[in-house]
């Protein structure tokens, strides 16, 4: 049987760092020597190819330009590989996974993001197991030869989560990620158990690289002063605003704030309402405090994570010029990010 081929893309992050014995600082290691760092890879019976960013990108520096670079690499190597593993800093991994889920639509092959909380040369590193299992998942096939995973996902500490359902919940625990509104795609124990009822199946692969980052994120809090944020509601600079509201989509009654929203939407702006709760969904109009949003045309974001909402907004604005089309895209489930 022919060995499956997996492309590893190293973008940066803790997982690719090693301690320089001379300086004591963390430096990126050469992924051409991957087998030396993780010799167990040879036992996976997988043919690996590696591509590294010319300069490793710290997770906090990740942005749409790098997302386009990653997406283009996958597109260019799609036919010659059975799966892809992206090594990435954990802080913004959920944003990158969300963005890629909209940029790489109709995948029939896995794109697995992983990383670590400790450098890969540390004795207690979580990176070694994360890399090994991610490669195994990226090469896993069904009996008919199709890939078991056919979407963008994050593997971290025994769980494989849908990428655009994932959020980072801890800065120091090995279990750094959670998927509060959607169950794992797979769990790794003695064996890897795939949960077939959660998986996406598709076969019309398309690449979308246009992203418009003229999006603002505004978190509502008690004592919120609308005048402080008035400059955000400028349609010439900001094309879309995401509101992180209380509970099921509620905000305090504030005439000045309501006027800002109403005028912004009338001028052609688009407002998306998501909950700031860790789990649950926006249900506009369920309470009186969210009925105004429903009346003026604010879009209910359902159970989308903040990361998915931000990236989906960039995708929707980047690929559509008509306001109503953008609203429709935001309301629809595109890549499994939204519960219908």
Walk me through this protein's architecture.
The structure is a single chain. This protein has eight helices and 18 strands. It is globular and about 65 Å long. It folds into two domains: 5-207, 3-Layer(aba) Sandwich (Rossmann fold), CATH 3.40.50.1170; 215-331, Rossmann fold. The longest helix has 14 residues, at 306-319. The strands form five sheets. An eight-stranded mixed β-sheet has the order 4-1-5-7-8-9-12-13, with helices on both faces. It is of the alpha/beta class and 340 residues long. The chain has helices at residues 34-37, 64-76, 93-103, 127-139, 255-266, 288-296, 306-319, 323-331, and strands spanning 5-10, 17-19, 26-28, 47-52, 83-87, 104-105, 111-114, 152-156, 159-162, 167-168, 177-178, 186-188, 192-194, 206-207, 215-219, 240-245, 270-275, 299-300.
User: Can you tell me the CATH class of the largest domain?
Assistant: Alpha Beta
Write down the domain tally. 2
User: Which percent range describes the beta-strand content?
Assistant: 15-25%
The assigned structural class equals: alpha/beta
Distance between the termini: 41 Å
- What's the average pLDDT? 90
Helix content: 25-40%
* Order of helical and strand elements: EEEHEHEHEEHEEEEEEEEEHEHEHH
Most strands sheet? 8 strands, mixed
Q: Which labels suit this protein?
A:
Rossmann fold, 2 domains, globular, 340 residues, alpha/beta
Summarize the structure.
It contains 8 helices and 18 strands. With 340 residues, the chain is α/β, with parallel strands linked by helices.
